Amino acid sequence: MTTRDPRLTPARPDLADSRLRGLVEAERFVEGQPRRVVAASAPLRRTPRVEAGLDTEAVMGEPVTVYDVTDGFAFVQLGLDGYVGYVPEDALGPVDPAPTHRVTALRTFLYPEPNMKRPNGGYLSLGASVSAQDRDGDFLRVGADAYVFAAHAETVQHREPDFGGTAERLVGTPYLWGGRTSLGLDCSGLVQLSLLMAGIACPRDADMQEAALGDALPPGLDGLLRGDLVFWKGHVGLMLDTDRLIHANGHHMTVAVEPLREAVARIAEKSFGAVTSIRRLPRSAA
């Protein structure tokens, strides 16, 4: 049978998505059940263990398909980018009501009442989505005893077209392998979050992004534009102008801006090797 990317294939030796019948081998095939992330964020791990490494994260409002639940972990495929793994079962809830608003602030707090002086019950990250049931003064009611500041959210149809500007807002965010929230990001998480806020579908990992996004430019570091994506084997950054690169990276352990040529020289010497491609999205998307 054709080899499939395990990151995007909801299949195990004992169980697989029924849509993969005849395409993969498994002891049984099941229909996935739609759910939605109801926690502020949900870690997705390769194996159902809390000590397993973080592959990626899903944030409130994102749809998932559940194939199995065992010992408090759900085996899922994320609706956003197709990533497969295990998330805590208690991070998931019903599909309805569908989200109406998306958080556009880097972070916003959840309050039990429409009053900023009340003790908050946690935060939501940039890109999280909620169902606004009504408005009470300066707050949106997004659940039983749950309110967010209305100016920190826009309708889900809203777009932030300057994805370079979104990335710049995240400067200083700590580097986190697998991170996809404004509390911690990895290189491809920064690119994905920035593009998604612009309404641009984006895969999760750097190799997937290199294969799917934009058109390859001729080799060389000249003539680059804001929004161009620079790829290495296992790394990606975003150009802010002809000279400056923004990227979440393990050298600074943060989202940082630096001259592209300095980054290229250091990365070639110490980590990912040479640039593998530079890709340009359509100008309408930049």
From TrEMBL:
Keyword Iron-sulfur belongs to the record: no
Span of domain NlpC/P60: 156-282
PROSITE patterns in the record: NLPC_P60 (PS51935)
Any Pfam family the entry gives: SH3_16
Record key words, sorted: Hydrolase, Protease, Thiol protease
Gene3D superfamilies reported for this sequence: endopeptidase domain like (from Nostoc punctiforme) (3.90.1720.10), SH3 Domains (2.30.30.40)
SUPFAM superfamilies to which the protein is assigned, alphabetical: Cysteine proteinases
Listed InterPro entries: NLP_P60_dom (IPR000064), Papain-like_cys_pep_sf (IPR038765), PG_Endopeptidase_C40 (IPR051794), SH3_16 (IPR041382)
GO molecular function ontology, one term from the record: cysteine-type peptidase activity
UniProt-listed GO biological process terms: proteolysis
Family assignment from sequence similarity: Belongs to the peptidase C40 family.
Stated name of the protein: Peptidase P60
